[in-house]
Specification:
It contains nine helices and twelve strands. It has 300 residues and is of the alpha/beta class. Helix 1 crosses helix 2, helix 1 packs across helix 3 and helix 5 crosses helix 9.
């Protein structure tokens, strides 16, 4: 039907079936058949003859008004898909963990802008759960997330960027805060701050597994949402939590970040991409993330 609507627009613009047929490189009988077929689909007469040619009927004007914007949107969407098919996508939608932005995302984006200066970036600060949901809805092209992304690894192209060390977030007043490193067993008597599973699925289970490997089960005094709230609880409640190594560069009032010495204490940084042929800009971005990840402290 879309082709017949285009033909109808051409007839109205030319004011003549003959001239429209020449413009569209069709025979007049073939064009007339298309118009008749369109009228049958719409359910009424769309064109009326005049001495000078043809003009739209009332129903024809209504069709022009109703279809002008959708037809333009269709053309724009199709052009975007064709650009992507040629590897010339002009937009990249990225979901990311705000905690990973300074050390991983920002340097990777700087690399990307050097090779793809015309690329339009849409960046979305999201929790791991929000990123996975947005990927499933087709609203993101790439998700930079933690090991929580492993739950969706079968649905998307998934790559582990790095396996990082772990730090313990402690209150600045904690006796362990001044150490260069600590063992997980040193936290056996401490209360832990958990993170809402709705935002970071599996994060609390990860902490439990690490602590059990060190010989104890952590006691979660509080479960809260978002890293900022977690660190506020660490500072105010003198409780602890475990975080990726790159948090060593963070600053938060009343909190310090001490490296964990246990060899098994690791945290995976993962990137998810939509399946299918990867556009050059997406590939360049993932390669940039990998390059930056290789420079992170505590990586393997």
């Amino acid at each position: 039907m879309i082709d017949r609507i285009r033909t109808f627009f051409a007839v109205v613009e030319e004011g003549s079936v003959n001239r429209a047929a020449v413009r569209l490189r069709m025979t007049q009988p073939a064009l007339s058949r298309q118009m008749k077929s369109l009228e049958q689909e719409v359910g009424g007469k769309l064109l009326e003859r005049e001495v000078s040619g043809v003009k739209p009927t009332g129903l024809g004007y209504a069709l022009l008004k109703a279809m002008r914007s959708p037809l333009a949107a269709y053309d724009a969407a199709l052009a975007g898909v064709r650009r992507q098919a040629r590897g010339a996508s002009v937009e990249l939608r990225v979901g990311y963990l705000v905690s990973a932005a300074p050390s991983v995302l920002t340097p990777a984006l700087e690399r990307l802008r050097q090779t793809h200066p015309a690329l339009k970036l849409k960046l979305h600060d999201m929790s791991p759960k929000e990123q996975i949901d947005a990927m499933r809805a087709g609203e993101l092209d790439v998700a930079l997330t933690g090991q929580e992304g492993a739950v969706a690894a079968r649905e998307f192209y998934s790559r582990k960027l790095s396996s990082l060390g772990v730090v313990a977030a402690l209150s600045a007043s904690d006796p362990l805060a001044g150490r260069k490193s600590i063992a997980l067993k040193d936290l056996k008597t401490r209360d832990f701050i958990g993170i809402d599973e709705g935002e970071m699925p599996g994060r609390n289970r990860w902490m439990i597994a690490l602590c059990r490997a060190a010989g104890f089960k952590p006691r979660f005094a509080v479960v809260t949402d978002g890293i900022t709230h977690v660190l506020s609880q660490v500072a105010s409640e003198s409780a602890v939590t475990l975080l990726p190594e790159y948090f060593r560069t963070f600053t938060h009032p009343g909190a310090v970040f001490v490296p964990v010495s246990d060899a098994k204490a690791r945290w995976d940084l993962i990137v998810l991409c939509q399946r299918g042929q990867m556009a050059p800009a997406t590939r360049a971005f993932v390669e940039g993330l990998e390059a930056v990840a290789r420079t992170l402290p505590g990586k393997t």
